[in-house]
Amino acid sequence: MANKAIRDPESADRSSQKLTTTSTVSAGFNRKTTNLHDIQLHPDTLGEFPNVSEGEFLKITADHDERSLEFYGRVEALDDRFDTEIKPDEVGVGIHCRRGIAVSIGDEVLVEEVDLETIGFRQRMMNSMLRFRPASCRVRKASSPDAGYRVCRIPPEVKDLVGIEWGDRIVIQSANARLRGMKALPLHERLEEKYRDREEEAPTRYPPPFVDTNEASRAGLLLDLPRIYISASARNELQLRGDGVYQPVKVHRDTSDVFVRLFDKLSIPIVLGAATIIIGFDISMRLKIVVFIVALIVALFSIRLHARRVLLE
After folding, report:
1. Domain range list for the chain
2. pLDDT digits (tens, 9 = 90+) for 5-18
3. In terms of pLDDT, which residue wins out, 30 or 226?
4. Span 137-165, average pLDDT
5. How far from 167 is each of 32, 160, 256, 308, 310, CA to CA, in Å?
6. Sign of the torsion formed by the C-alpha atoms of 256, 261, 266 and 268
7. Beta bridge mates, 171
8. Which listed CATH number (3.90.79.10, 2.40.40.20, 1.10.1060.10, 2.40.320.10) goes with 121-255?
């Protein structure tokens, strides 16, 4: 199949190609090299996307009978590091991405350029300093008590994978938009039971698990991505197709929130240190006032943070 370039009807500057799905390949282990294994292209094929360089993002869409599923990933060009070659009319798609859009090796997908929100300098610094590890997840509908709130119910394995504590803020990234400030709350056993009950009682409004769909059956999908539950407003902000149910997204910790939490843990030592300086050291009154003000600001900041981190039960 020829990899003929297509123009996105919504943007004359955005290139896209229909390619055949294949598995990603490894360049071997190297401590100094990050092998993405997300989306891999032949160098000539990557050259057909003039606005995308290696390490940047592309969107992959799989059209099914009942719905279209779309995901995104960083692109990696195959070169001399790799023993196996991906053909110009193929796209190497990682296992999580293939699960996300429910495709098998040999299926045709649409690969296109995508305009994701640029991360600001401060956030880039936080990400570089504290790092984060995304988890691929499947979107489901939230219900009371979460409907209308900026919260996201996630299973414990996702919490452990992304490296957060309950109540931390997380970032949800779809193929079209990024959503910050979502509070991560646990997917309690009673909530899981509630979700199962409503899926049985109202399957039209609350669709069954994705593994029970025709798309998953055709793709031979026995193990799905972890499910997360978010409100309709959150799904709209993520610009998900349709009502957003079943669409794959990536979840990772908000490094700015992690920095604030770590700073909060240091607040008591800072306040105690300030008290020691004021009481135990022979310093000028002006310096004592400065130290006192700094300690007061830290204490008020910590109190405000604890008030905001109260979990919704």
Report:
1. 5-113, 121-255, 266-308
2. 333 444 446 789 99
3. 226
4. 89
5. 34, 13, 14, 9, 7
6. positive
7. 252
8. 2.40.40.20
What SS3 class is residue 219? coil
CA distance 161 to 168: 14
Following CA atoms 158, 209, 114, 238 in sequence, which dihedral angle do they give, to the nearest 10 degrees?
-70
> In this structure, what token pair is assigned to residue 182?
């979502």
Provide the token pair at 239.
Answer: 């610009």
DSSP code at position 296: H
**pTM for the complete prediction?**
0.80
Paired tokens of 183: 């509070």
Cα 88 to Cα 4, 41, 61, 93, 160: the distances in Å are 10, 7, 18, 14, 38
In order of 26, 296, 304, the CA distances from 275 in angstroms are 56, 11, 21
Q: Give the integer Cα–Cα distance in Å for 61 and 36.
A: 19
Cα(95)–Cα(43) distance, integer angstroms:
21
Class of domain 5-113: mainly beta
For residue 303, the SS3 value is: helix
| Gyration radius of the chain over CA positions | 23
Q: What is the mean pLDDT of the chain?
A: 84
121-255 has the same fold as 5-113:
yes
Query: HSE-up of 247 (CA within 13 Å, CB side)?
Result: 29
- Neighbour tally for 157: CB within 10 Å: 10
Mutual angle of helices 255-265 and 121-130, in 10-degree steps: 60
Output the CA torsion 84→86→91→93 (10° steps): 0
Q: What share of the chain is helix, strand, coil (3-state, %, to 5)?
A: 35, 25, 40
